[in-house]
Every structure is written in structure tokens, then in C-alpha cells.
Write a structure and sequence with these properties.
By secondary structure, this protein is of the alpha+beta class. It is 42% helix and 12% strand. The longest helix is centred in the middle third of the chain and has 12 residues. The mean pLDDT is 75.
Length: 64
Amino acid sequence: MSGSERLLASGLGGRSAIVTGTSAGIGHATALACAADDAPVLVVELDAEGAERFGGVDAPGGRT
């Protein structure tokens, strides 16, 4: 199990997450997983069209 997999499996425990490449693939899935764990998520995407497609994260606690 990788370090990031261990972190997500154990919960973020009040930590924030910065996730790159969020328009698709692993970055997208990671941002959604962090948000589902109620962590504040800063998403970073260089592809403007991809960023618009992603549109943000709706977190259970109401944070995006």
C-alpha cells in the first residue's frame, strides 16, 4: 500500500489536501475521496477546460 493509500485509508484527521490534475483520472478520484472524508480540498488544474469540467467538489460538510 502506498503512502497516499495509507493516508486515505486511515482518514485525513482534520488535515487539508492539495490535489493536482483534478480534471480526470487519479487526481479527480483523489479530490473526491478527500472531500468525502470531509477534508478541505484545494484543487489545482492547468487545463482550463478540464478545470471547468471538474467544477469543484461538493463536500458533505458543505465546503468546496
